[in-house]
TrEMBL record:
InterPro entries referenced in this protein's UniProt entry, alphabetically: AAA+_ATPase (IPR003593), P-loop_NTPase (IPR027417), PTPase_dom (IPR058670), Spore_III_AA_AAA+_ATPase (IPR045735)
UniProt superkingdom: Eukaryota
Keyword Phosphoprotein appears in the UniProt entry: no
Organism: Paulinella chromatophora
Domain AAA+ ATPase: 135-291
PANTHER family: KINASE-RELATED, P-LOOP CONTAINING NUCLEOSIDE TRIPHOSPHATE HYDROLASES SUPERFAMILY PROTEIN
Protein name: Uncharacterized protein ycf45
Gene: ycf45
Key words of the record: ATP-binding, Nucleotide-binding, Plastid
Gene3D superfamilies registered for this protein in UniProt: P-loop containing nucleotide triphosphate hydrolases
């Protein structure tokens, strides 16, 4: 099957609204100029302005110093003069945008540093979980800070309100979802927004939203206290769909968190009888799930490109508590825009294949092999599901190659590959010559850890396909 390159690039999957100029205009002129000279502004995450230090721009995969002059008190004062007043959480937004500025203060309360975080509205990045949203089940989104939970939450609220015609109320504690203006940002569509005067009162606003505004869906960002977890359970028991986020790198970490474990059912100690303990082949005191989860569905955001969806949280928590290893979660790539409803035939077959694959890959083959790419066998073998069967997924780190294009090809050709953002976890590095020649850190890391580097001539479908098929044929041998 051939796919012209233009077909991939001519089908936009996302519409990104960043309004970056509003944020850049509050910066000192020299910082603004240094940022303007940089490329890939769409990957800018935040700008760090600390007193006495050179400003830093954090991008998705790297960080850059902005100029050679440190930030002064005058710089910080001029920036804060252009902003509104900071709240009790030391945050402030820019009017009519989604950007957020957070302050660092000394012991006297004087601002000595600013974190300018870029806010973006991305339309179309959650289309693959529309079937879950349409089901009416409550959904919990987990992930590390800065991975894109709030961005996904904003688009979920818009889709529920505009496309599914639900009555949606957003509890916007830090004004990060709908902006700092009294008029909500257009990115939330017809959803309504409730602002919170004090972050400590978020749980009260959650209950007030139900009592006063008759919502069908409540959207909450960052459930972080026990009272908020209890309020979430109260809302769920009233038959209202909850969409919320929580910090945590996975379902297992949430189970271990005593403050938030109630979101996934909570845990309790149970004493088994002698016969039951013998039947289970375990000790008499065990941990079991205390109640049904507040959120029947959970999403783990591993990277901005890869999500894992647990369609049955209760079952997964039971497995975790019994110290079992489970691979029953379904990973969907949001860049592919090809999400399938859970329960469809195609989805079941894909899940069956995915369950036979693990998330880690031994690199012993690569450490012991000195084969050149010219010697690889181009013949490919597929099973009845038309997917190449390998014992494990191959983790690829891309240098200078568009993740969007490679994700499309992975979906079309059903390659058992997984794109990662961290070169330390890679099994293979895929790069174009120009990019790799300027990145000595990646070359040095690959040499030290015996990670093979596969160089392709150009970023075209033909070159990428030829390189990947050579890699896969080597694994088949």
């Amino acid at each position: 099957m051939s796919l012209p390159l233009k077909d991939v690039k001519s089908s936009p999957l996302q519409i990104i609204i960043s309004e970056l100029n509003h944020l850049l205009n509050i910066l000192p002129a020299r910082v603004y100029q240094a940022l303007s000279n940089q490329q890939k502004m769409e990957e800018l995450l935040e700008i760090i302005l600390d007193l006495g230090k050179i400003p830093i721009a954090h991008y998705r995969n790297n960080s850059l110093l902005l100029g050679d002059k440190p930030i002064t008190r005058i710089d910080l004062e001029r920036i804060t003069e252009r902003l509104g007043s900071f709240g009790e959480d030391n945050r402030v937004g820019i009017d009519s945008t989604l950007h957020r500025i957070s302050a660092l203060r000394n012991r006297k309360g004087t601002i000595i540093g600013l974190t300018c975080r870029v806010g973006r509205a991305i339309c179309g990045d959650i289309i693959m979980i529309r079937d879950l949203l349409d089901s009416g089940q409550s959904i919990l989104i987990m992930g590390c800070p800065g991975i894109g939970k709030t961005t996904a939450l904003r688009e979920i609220a818009r889709l529920l309100a505009d496309d599914l015609n639900r009555r949606v109320i957003i509890i916007d504690t830090s004004n990060e979802i709908a902006g700092d203006s009294d008029i909500p940002h257009p990115s939330i569509g017809k959803a309504r927004r409730m602002q919170v005067a004090n972050p400590n009162l978020q749980h009260r606003m959650m209950i007030e939203a139900i009592e006063n505004h008759t919502p069908e869906v409540i959207v909450i960002d960052e459930i972080g206290t026990e009272m908020e977890a209890q309020a979430a359970r109260t809302i769920a028991e009233r038959g209202i769909q909850l969409i919320a986020t929580a910090h945590g790198d996975g379902l297992a970490s949430l189970v271990k968190n005593p403050t938030l474990s109630d979101l996934v059912g909570g845990i309790q100690s149970v004493i088994l009888g002698d016969d039951e303990a013998q039947r289970r082949c375990t000790q008499k005191t065990v941990l079991e799930r205390a109640a049904d989860p507040t959120f029947p569905v959970a999403i783990e955001m591993h990277t901005s490109h890869r999500w894992s969806i647990h369609a049955d949280v209760a079952h997964m928590v039971d497995i975790i508590l019994r110290n079992w290893n489970s691979s029953s979660s379904l990973s969907r790539d949001y860049l592919s825009n090809k999400g399938l409803p859970i329960g469809s035939k195609t989805d079941k077959s894909s899940l069956l294949v995915a369950n036979n694959l693990t998330n880690s890959l031994s690199t012993n083959f690569w450490k012991n092999s000195r084969s050149r790419t010219e010697d690889l066998n181009p013949n490919m073998k597929y099973d009845s599901t038309d997917m190449l069967v390998l014992p494990e997924l191959i983790r690829i780190f891309c240098c200078g190659i568009t993740c969007k294009l490679l994700n499309e090809l992975i979906l079309i050709y059903k390659w058992p590959l997984r794109l990662i953002d961290n070169v330390r976890s890679a099994d293979i590095i895929l790069s174009v010559p120009k990019y790799l020649s300027h990145n000595t850190l990646i070359r040095r890391h690959a040499q030290n850890h015996r990670i093979p580097i596969l160089i392709i001539k150009s970023e075209t479908v033909a070159d990428i396909r030829q390189a990947i098929e050579r890699v896969l044929s080597t694994y088949m041998n």
